[in-house]
Amino acid sequence: MKSDFSNHIPKQTALDRLFAKWKPTPETVTVPVGDCAGRVLAEDTFAKYDLPVVRASAMDGIAVHSALFADGLPDTSGWRLGVDYIRADTGDDFDDAYDAVIPIENVTVLPEGGIALDPDTEVRPGSNVRPCGSTVRKDTPLVKAGTRLSPLDMTAIAMGGYGEVKVLRRPRVAFIPSGSELVPVGSELKRGQNFDTNSLLIRELLVRMGAEPIMHPIVKDDPAALRQAVEELLPRCDILLLGAGTSKGGEDYGTGIIAEFGEPLFHGVAAVPGRPMSMAVGGGKALVNLSGPTFAAFYSMEWAVRAMVCHFLGQKLYQRTKIRARLTEDLRTPPMFSSLNAFHVTRDGEGYLATLAALRGPNSRGQAAVLTADAIYASVPGEKPRRAGEEIELELLRNAAQLQSE
Predict the structure, then answer these.
(1) Of 110, 113, 112, 115, the residue nearest 63 (C-alpha)
(2) How far apart are the C-alpha atoms of 357 and 208, rounded to whole Å?
(3) How many H helices and E strands in the chain?
(4) 3-state class of 145 per DSSP?
(5) What is the DSSP string of 211-230?
(6) H runs (alpha helix) in 129-197
(7) Which of 36, 130, 162, 164 has the largest count of CB atoms under 10 Å?
(8) What is the 3-state secondary structure (H, E, C) of 251-270?
(9) What is the pLDDT of residue 406?
């Protein structure tokens, strides 16, 4: 019997339907400035102080009276520490009686006391002195609201005098792994069982997306148990992910259950793996039923959940590093779907080479092949076959420096 793909909608259509119905308004929370990296800033920040407050040494050295150097280098052989000069290291304030700093590299402390200066030493008023506000000036704009804060942003805000900062609350994303065959990772595996590795994958992906994961224990393929888990987690989360039970198998209850808690938006998306995915919206919450196979769950997290987290935080979808690589073999993708393909990438004298990490076939290592791949490529519906030697644009899953040479 021929499959019916008429109800499989494009990825962007799926997101458009969701975002038309789901319009979250995250609260503002206050966190210590040292914990704000990776968060989204809730309000513009401005420097509270001048820094340095008065002035500071620009380098390790000695502070001196510049007037003594008006006619060239004075005789410093009898100078005394604390009287004729003082130490002034990088960033230090120093006594107002001194107005210039000589680099310590130009100074030799004499055994009998006093100092000798390199003959090319030049001293003028303010030499090697950072004036008030030269690092940060009071009321200067620091970081704008809506910025996802980098470690450097965090440091700039701290430098501006903040001990705490207002950020958007992270979206709380709950995940319910379902399947009577699932057992926790590390268990002694028996016939008919499978490890719940999706919980590990999804938790880590959510953290990296900037979300707060809420992980539920494994739920067996029982409608009442699944329904109870959803009822328990919905009040605690903004997005609820139900793992597995998306298709038409005898124990696939997930899509029907999320429809009990919200308005169904679709069941079936033109993206493989993971096409039986479904979504619903209810009570200000987004509910998603993900396909169970690990690479399918990854793809749905990649194009859908990542976009949902960014939507919640008012952020644009961030992009991974991209490279162009030559195919080592033909690439055929299903014409009616966006297909996620994983590649192992190597380098030769001409650039990068992309070898498909096949899930199936005589040379396949199964899921391990795709889960340990270096890069991914998502085709578009209607894409023509790509030939060996042709270049395609890949998104890297690891640092380019880790790619091996042939």
Answers:
(1) 115
(2) 24
(3) 8, 24
(4) coil
(5) -EEEEPPPB-S-HHHHHHHH
(6) 151-159
(7) 36
(8) CCCHHHHHHHHCEEEEECEC
(9) 60
The dihedrals phi and psi of 25, each to the nearest 5 degrees, come to -130, 90
Contacts (Cβ under 8 Å, ≥6 apart) of 223: 253, 256, 257
The C-alpha atoms of residue 174 and residue 213 are separated, in whole angstroms, by 6
How many CA atoms within 13 Å lie on the side-chain side of 60? 4
Structural domains of the chain sorted by starting position, each given as residue range(s) with its CATH number in brackets = 11-26+170-313 (3.40.980.10), 36-50+136-168 (3.90.105.10), 55-131 (2.170.190.11), 322-405 (2.40.340.10)
Closest among 149, 168, 162 to 28, alpha carbons compared: 168
> Which ranges of the chain have pLDDT less than 70?
1-6, 245-251, 359-366, 405-406
- Other CB atoms within 10 Å distance of the CB of residue 232: 12
Indicate the pairing of strand 239-243 with strand 285-290.
Answer: parallel
With a CB cutoff of 8 Å and minimum separation 6, the contacts of 51 are 133, 135, 136, 159, 161
> Measuring CA to CA, how many Å separate 252 from each of 9, 219, 258, 289, 401?
20, 13, 12, 10, 43
What is the pLDDT at residue 152? 97
pLDDT in tens, 271-295: 999 999 999 999 999 999 999 889 9
Side-chain half-sphere CA neighbours of 106 within 13 A: 18
| Amino acid letter, 404 | Q
> For residue 238, what are the contacts with CB-CB under 8 A and spacing of at least 6?
24, 26, 171, 172, 173, 284, 285, 286, 312
Quick one: tokens of 198? 């999706």
Q: At what angle do helices 11-21 and 306-313 cross, to 10 degrees?
A: 30
Helices 223-233 and 254-261 cross at an angle (nearest 10°) of: 40
CA–CA separation, 272 vs 260, rounded Å?
A: 26
